[in-house]
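User: Here's a structure from my thesis project, written as structure tokens. My advisor, Dr. K., wants to see whether a designed sequence matches the one we expressed. Can you design one independently, without my sequence as a hint?
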């Protein structure tokens, strides 16, 4: 094995820790029972109309998004594929284990919700810092920005409102937690990036095609 592939393997623990933390964070927001983030509302709604779990709904959504974004020339990275499969798998595993607390009063539910958001923020840091691609949902945003030539903020807002409304109509839980997640997640993610000294504007993510060129080089 050449040294380039050894560098790739050294990135795997951070990637896997990030994806597992992501699942812990999502699971905590589910346990808080105050309403979910827009994408989680959609996944929960999807799981109510199809014979699949919440995690499987997230996997199915990620798979479809990777296919759709591929047609608008967004090539997934290794982390994109891992994100698509592992986050949903870990979420189902965590929720089925019954290890996380189920809060019985509003104060504890709010605490659990914020713990979930903090987990998601640090998860984003751990899996993005390896620069092996973002998640399928960010790939959709990137592709639509490129195709429509609209600002990132407009595209992200349009996507999240669309999936939120669709998820709500499918029976997904919308509540004060949805508002809290929408207002605070971005700020807490930025805080986690600052602590980890990760600057997304300077990151150079590589897709699967580029990864083969970079890590397949012979020394």
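Assistant: Designed independently from the structure alone:
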């Amino acid at each position: 094995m050449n040294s380039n592939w050894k560098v790739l393997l050294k990135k795997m623990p951070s990637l896997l820790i990030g994806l597992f933390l992501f699942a812990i964070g999502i699971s905590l927001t589910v346990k808080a029972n105050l309403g979910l983030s827009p994408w989680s509302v959609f996944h929960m709604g999807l799981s109510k109309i199809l014979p699949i779990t919440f995690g499987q709904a997230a996997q199915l959504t990620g798979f479809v998004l990777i296919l759709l974004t591929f047609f608008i020339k967004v090539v997934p990275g290794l982390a994109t594929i891992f994100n698509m499969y592992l986050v949903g798998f870990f979420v189902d595993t965590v929720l089925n284990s019954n290890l996380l607390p189920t809060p019985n009063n509003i104060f504890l539910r709010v605490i659990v919700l914020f713990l979930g958001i903090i987990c998601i923020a640090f998860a984003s840091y751990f899996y993005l810092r390896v620069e092996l691609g973002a998640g399928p949902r960010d790939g959709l945003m990137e592709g639509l920005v490129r195709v429509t030539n609209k600002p990132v903020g407009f595209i992200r807002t349009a996507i999240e409102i669309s999936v939120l409304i669709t998820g709500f109509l499918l029976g997904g839980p919308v509540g004060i937690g949805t508002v809290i997640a929408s207002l605070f997640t971005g700020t807490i993610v930025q805080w986690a990036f600052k602590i980890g000294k990760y600057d997304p504007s300077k990151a150079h993510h590589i897709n699967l095609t580029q990864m083969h060129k970079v890590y397949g080089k012979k020394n």
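When you compare it with your expressed construct, this may help: The two ends are 10 Å apart (CA to CA).
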